[in-house]
Amino acid sequence: MIRPEKSEELKKFVAEISAGDAAKAAANEEVVSRFKKVELNAPAAVKSRISALLGAQREHPPLLFRKAAVPALAACAAVLILAVSLYHPRRPAAELSPDWRSYYNYPAYADEARMYLMDIQPDWRASYNFPGSAELYGR
Amino acid sequence: MEFPEVYEVFFARIYSYIRCRIGSDAAAEDISSSVFQKALSRFGQYDPARGNMAQWLFGIARNEVNSYLRKAAVLKFLPLDLFGDIFSGEAGQDPGTADSGGDMAELVSALGTLETRERDIITLKFYSEMTNREIAKVTGLSESNIGTILYRCMAKLREKLTGESYDTP
Lengths: 139, 169
Prior knowledge:
- The complex is a heterodimer of chains A (139) and B (169).
- Chain A is mainly alpha-helical and 139 residues long.
- Chain A has helices at residues 8-18, 22-40, 44-59, 69-87, 107-117, 133-137.
- Among the domains of chain A are: 8-59, no CATH class; 103-137, no CATH class.
- The relative contact order of chain A is 0.04.
- Chain B has 169 residues and is mainly α.
- Chain B has helices at residues 3-22, 25-41, 53-75, 82-87, 101-111, 116-128, 132-139, 143-162.
- Chain B starts with a helix and ends in a 7-residue tail after the last helix.
- Chain A binds chain B through residues 1-2, 6-7, 9-10, 13, 17, 23-24, 27-28, 30-32, 34-43, 46-47, 49-51, 53-54, 57-58, and chain B through 3, 7-9, 11-13, 15-16, 19-20, 25, 29, 32-33, 36-37, 40-41, 96-97, 99-100, 103-104, 106-107, 110, 123, 125-127, 129-131, 150-151, 154, 157-158, 161-162, 164.
């Protein structure tokens, strides 16, 4: 729909800037008509091309905005939340025994601790403590 | 007003506004398409309490044109004197303007003598047919400033298109 006539606002504008001068009013009308010609000559081919494009956009909105996609998206979201909650429990399982802080669990002191607990002499590494060495050393 | 009706009423006006500001048929087609696509996707967000349909649509069109001009300047896809060439009528005429003949070229050439802001405001006035107050709201200028700019633009266009002497207010 192209308006053949200029609107009230344009008529008012032309009258206002002409300030009652007939020659100026005619010149202003000429300027307005030049602009009007551009509007009247707006290419119909472009209009129909854009119209077709918009029609396709209206008929096939993006997937995420289609109403039919809502239940599917909700189901996917539910499955995702379930999977995340199953495979990522809130409290991770303890990988260390509760006594991990114990003195005898530290590698550097483990042997000494074991010796202490088992009532082994501190010099257990000495060669005479090895089996068969007692006789050798006369103990 | 449904969207198809809006398209029917405003297509020619939006296209002409963009055509006069850009000076190129191909770019005007692309930008018009983009404007109406945006308008369609945001049609539900249009709030009549914040302005009429012309204000809303021409606001989108104005942003698109400004964005296009900024990109063109920044990316240097277009030479800086592109608009000078086009508006001075030295560049070849687009095939799409053959129907409007020399009138279009003459108008585009006359618009080329205006500053960017003046071109924006005078084309808004003619194609959106908004009041000065509405244009002021869209452009962020004062209403009296819009009135002065329009008066000056009309004087320049009269001089270029009809040969009347340019008188400053």
